[in-house]
Amino acid sequence: MPRFAAWLGLSTLVIVLDQITKFMVVGSLSLGAVIPVNAFFDLVHIHNRGAAFSFLAHEDGWQKYFFIALALGICSWMLVLLRRHAAEKIAPLAFALIIGGALGNVIDRVLYGAVVDFLYFHVANYGWPAFNLADSAITLGVGLMVWEQTFGHCTEKT
What we know:
The structure is a single chain. Helix content is 61%, strand content 15%. With 158 residues, the protein is of the alpha+beta class. The protein has one domain (2-156). The chain has a 4-stranded antiparallel sheet with strand order 1-2-3-4.
């Protein structure tokens, strides 16, 4: 049980850091603002009504509730997995990061009707879609899940 609480603490830390950074962006940059930092990185203030890569962003609003329900459902499932695997190392780390990131973006959808994105990397006219710390936590968590599923069995046999 103590390890489960520690993993929940990590999820909470992800949510808090994500919301602090978004609060700073919303409070200091007008929507659509761009601040060039260097040749390949800008701070921006964008609202994404869709999911990754703006999937369903141009729909008429129903997607907000869909993505909230989907994230809450995934987080519920991840909490079960987190409790079941709390004594391990990589799997619960992945679950905690995903839970924290997903809930951070749910908070945005409730507060703003969209996810606040502010990190924009680009080279010349080619850029990666803007993202935030919650997205980074989710991506890292999914990467760890793939790593664990691919290579985790190798370390258990030694």
